[in-house]
Each structure stands twice: as C-alpha cells, then as structure tokens.
Specification:
Blueprint: H1 11-20, H2 50-53
Length: about 55
C-alpha cells in the first residue's frame, strides 16, 4: 500500500522530506502539473519587421 502525501508547511519541511523519504512508496497518479510565477514578467515581447532591423 502506498503512503499518503504529507502536508509540508515550509521549504525546510519539503527539503527534508525529499532527502529522507523513499519516494517509490508514494502514489504519483493523483498529481497534476502546476505552474507558478514567482516574479512578474519584466519585459514585453516586441515584433519588428526585418527591414527595421537594418542600420
């Protein structure tokens, strides 16, 4: 039987869990990808026509 995933409330808890746990004993089938933006994007995408790129 697979173990239930623990509730990790800090980065330190997560680091300790990954270092010490045997991850083969946990069920990954219920996991879903998650994206998180840590910092707002600082630049905007600008499209230029090729002739504009020549000096």
């Amino acid at each position: 039987m697979k173990h239930k995933w623990p509730v990790l409330t800090s980065d330190e808890d997560a680091e300790r869990f990954v270092e010490e746990a045997d991850l083969t004993e946990y069920d990954f089938s219920q996991m879903v990808p998650v994206s998180y933006e840590f910092e707002a994007k600082a630049a905007a995408l600008v499209r230029l026509h090729r002739p504009s790129l020549k000096p």
